[in-house]
Design brief:
homotetramer; 135 residues; six-stranded antiparallel β-sheet
Chain lengths: 135, 135, 135, 135
Amino acid sequence: MTYDFELKMKVRDYECDLQGIVNNANYQHYTEHCRHEFLLSHDISFSAMHEQGIDAVVARITIDYKVPLRSGDEFAVRLRLERDGIKYVFFQDIYRLADEKLVAKARVDTVCMLNGRLMKSCPELDAKLQDILSR
Amino acid sequence: MTYDFELKMKVRDYECDLQGIVNNANYQHYTEHCRHEFLLSHDISFSAMHEQGIDAVVARITIDYKVPLRSGDEFAVRLRLERDGIKYVFFQDIYRLADEKLVAKARVDTVCMLNGRLMKSCPELDAKLQDILSR
Amino acid sequence: MTYDFELKMKVRDYECDLQGIVNNANYQHYTEHCRHEFLLSHDISFSAMHEQGIDAVVARITIDYKVPLRSGDEFAVRLRLERDGIKYVFFQDIYRLADEKLVAKARVDTVCMLNGRLMKSCPELDAKLQDILSR
Amino acid sequence: MTYDFELKMKVRDYECDLQGIVNNANYQHYTEHCRHEFLLSHDISFSAMHEQGIDAVVARITIDYKVPLRSGDEFAVRLRLERDGIKYVFFQDIYRLADEKLVAKARVDTVCMLNGRLMKSCPELDAKLQDILSR
């Protein structure tokens, strides 16, 4: 897969649970942070959008867990964005940097809401991500 | 769906993010806590299993987000367990208690590992959850 | 100490870190949730106050950690509120329920802000917590 | 204050709560991650120590909150270590990088435990942090 964005991060020990591996929910945090940084890199602020009444929300998430991350691991979250009807679909794969092993594969279907109502399209995303979405 | 277990909980304000709703990753926490309480109700301790070298791990999770939970909301996580090959599949639905509205639907595929190796079956789960798994 | 409020909770496994004990920061979450439930029990909503531009914020927190909580532990957070100048000071002690052992002692100094400005007093807290604050 | 270590980080949106600012408990996470990175920079692994039965634990934490961090903020956690009797005391200050504003001041008193028993001194820390501790 060709990715549109990459964010490098490092495991923080408090993200590990009593099994000594990163707790499952934290991978979801990693993908969220990566999406928001991707949006920021295209001059789209998640929190500024929220203040204008527009919220990009996750409608569905699927995560396949392959290999767990552990204390000290460095990793990259790589992201590819595609449009599917009213959905903005983020394909996000997490790789452990030491050996490029695939850690987790996520598919995140998001939609935009305007003051709580589903939008067919989000003008700000469409304008600023035009190159990617028209691909 | 007929459920095998229910856990009632209440939103904690720190679980809400800047959109004023419970952050997506916390629903995953809710489902995890519900699974562990379900196991405990059948005398299976997740942390005791870990100390014996057996870890039940999530191989795949899918969550459909329907309606967000907010500050003050009380909710129930309802769980049904089914066996599918080597997988123990948890169907977990979250309902808002005030109006029984469906908040989120999760399917959590778990497998058991013995000292890091995939097990075809987990004897402890099979023994203690026999009634449910042989249904 | 005589307490004004008690909230009973149970450790959730995801709150434990790789040391197998509840991560330190989660005790702060427990005290926050207890404060908000205490306020709600006096008909004060933290999130509703926020929407009116009033934020109760923590100016200083001190936590003494005595005995760690572990997977499966049930505990109570007990709270006493006192006024000290412009500060609303919450004394919050956490006890393990199995043996009433003191787990942690916290002192949380909070102040109220109106649209980002420090308030000398918060009328809503003063009115609804009059019995406690005038003690 | 002269610092022994600095870790630069950026707010992740999921760390913000419904007040739109970083939730108080997350500053504690930031200080923990900074301490562990500091230790790693001196070749001391928190998780490896744990596997040898030695746990550095927090006995007391005090945090003064000055200015809240918000979505998008970059910040540095700066750390100074001092010895005080059996305690290893970490002074940790968080600064917002855009304007070097002091965000929070923390003092974290830690002690070492060997298989659950308080140690008068932790040989590994003493050896590897000799330059700092003998200052």
